[in-house]
Amino acid sequence: VVYLPVRHHSPACAWHVGRVIRELRPQRVLIEGPRDATALIRFLVDPALKPPVAIYTSYVERRSEGLPRRHGAYYPLCDYSPELAALRAGQEVGAECRFIDLTYPELVAAEQAKPRDHARSLQNEQYFRHSAMLRAVCRKIGARDHDDLWDCLYEADFRSVESTTFFHNVLTYCSLARHDYTPEMIGAEAHDVREGVMSAEIQEGVGRAVVVTGGFHTVALPTTAPRRPPSVRLAKPEDAGVNLMRYNFEQLDRLNGYGSGMPSPAFYQRVWEGGDVAGLLVDLGRRLRERHATPSTADTIAGLNHVLQLAAFRSHPIPTREDLLDGVRSVFIKGSVDVEGVAVLAAARQYLAGDKVGTVPAGAGRPPLVANFEACAAVH
Q1: Helix, strand, or coil (residue 242)
Q2: pLDDT digits (tens, 9 = 90+) for 190-227
Q3: Is residue 262 scored above 90 in pLDDT?
Q4: What is the SS3 assignment for 87-153?
Q5: What is d(CA 198, CA 183) in angstroms, rounded to the nearest whole number?
Q6: Contact of 202 with 192, CB cutoff 8 Å
Q7: Tens of pLDDT along 288-302?
Q8: Strands 96-101, 28-34: parallel, antiparallel or unpaired by DSSP?
Q9: What is the reported pTM?
Q10: CB-CB neighbours of 86 under 10 Å
């Protein structure tokens, strides 16, 4: 078994996951994700699918008294999601691909969930933001936050690093994040239950396996005893659903409230495609000039030079997201950042988020909300 720790929606992790699977050609590719979504993998690797998309899971928890509790959760995937890269590479080498995490009803039962007023993400990585150990590393190297730290350590030069070294370093990063967690905290968030069922799924099959999970779980998986949770009985078959749906970059952007993965999806799409990252500043300058008559062409040239010199000064082979934003703050904003800079930074944030919308293959069906709308429209 080869364990690959990843950060969700990391181009660097996605690139190395694909590379390792193509080199090892395993019999099995096992991925963190709801087990009952395995049936959707054939659509996820369909050439007609255009990310970003999301697996949407729903669960109606019926009780003896009162109204039922309704739960919903998303599992988003984009071109540079390591999970999708693993599925695509696994298909290329003829491996059996499966999701190995709890189903959503099992997860709700494991967490003893309270009613929620909104759907959540199944790829929550809040432990990176809350880690005291990682905050100490940020102070040590001068990174602004955990996103900046991750970019400096992993995204800036991932194509020049050996995959073994890369994943060893990612595992170290995730070990630091997990170091803050007590057994009680692990249990309260059902990580132990999830890791038990993933371990059971890993040990069940035969042949070489590559296991792709969030690094927080990879730290524990090799030593976790296999354990399956009690089955969840459904009052009605339709009380649990797993559907593939379109998604977009605005929803995927962590800065818009999405609790997992990376901010500024359009920026990382450019990184994934190997495009000119610094050129994003030129495009942003042109957009701002069309709306506000500033920055001038000379400002844009100065900003581009500023970004490239900052990246070189910081030993970044390509500019990071913060290098780019520093160019905006230093050159495009004439005046105070919290006054004149508000509109400029808002435009920069919107542009780096992007507006890409995914496409789902026709055979994948429609989400329940769409089917319900069509049924109501037919009645009326």
Answers
A1: strand
A2: 999 999 999 999 999 889 999 999 999 999 999 999 99
A3: no
A4: HHHHHHCCCEEEEEECCHHHHHHHHCCCCCCCCEECCCCHHHHHCHHHHHHHHHHCCCCHHHHHHHH
A5: 18
A6: no
A7: 998 877 899 999 999
A8: parallel
A9: 0.91
A10: 27
pLDDT value of position 297? 93
Give percent above pLDDT 70 in the chain: 94
The rounded distance, in Å, linking the Cα atoms of 212 and 86 is 7
* 56: β partners: 74, 243
Task: Label residue 115 by pLDDT band (50, 70, 90).
Answer: very low
Residue 295 φ then ψ, to 5°: -75, 160
The reported pLDDT for the residue numbered 100 is: 97
Q: In what order do the strands lie in the sheet with 96-101?
A: 2-6, 209-214, 28-34, 96-101
Q: Is 220 exposed, middle or buried (0-12, 13-18, 19+ CB in 10 A)?
A: buried
Specify which residues 59 forms β-bridges with: 71, 240
HEC per residue, 282-328 = HHHHHHHHHHHCCCCHHHHHHHHHHHHHHHHHCCCCCCCHHHHHHHH
Tell me phi and psi for residue 122, to 5 degrees: -85, 5
Q: Which residues 6+ apart lie within 8 Å of 107 measured at CB?
A: 34, 73, 101, 122, 190, 194
Contact criterion met (CB below 8 Å) for 9 and 151: no
Q: What are phi and psi of 196, to 5 degrees?
A: -65, -45
User: CA-based Rg of the chain, rounded to a whole angstrom?
Assistant: 22
Report d(CA 92, CA 181) in Å as an integer.
38
Residue with tokens 């605005």: 250
Q: Which residue has the tokens 């969840």?
A: 232
Q: Which residue has 């524990």 as its token pair?
A: 220
> What distance in Å separates the CA atoms of residue 318 and residue 297, rounded to the nearest whole number?
23
Q: Which of 235, 213, 247 is nearest to 364 (CA)?
A: 247
Q: Which two tokens stand for residue 305?
A: 């030079």
Which residue is it, tokens 């695509």? 88
* Contacts of residue 156, Cβ cutoff 8 Å, sequence gap at least 6: 316, 317, 318, 320
The pLDDT value recorded for residue 114 is 44
Residue 114, amino acid:
K
Q: What are phi and psi of 190, to 5 degrees?
A: 65, 20
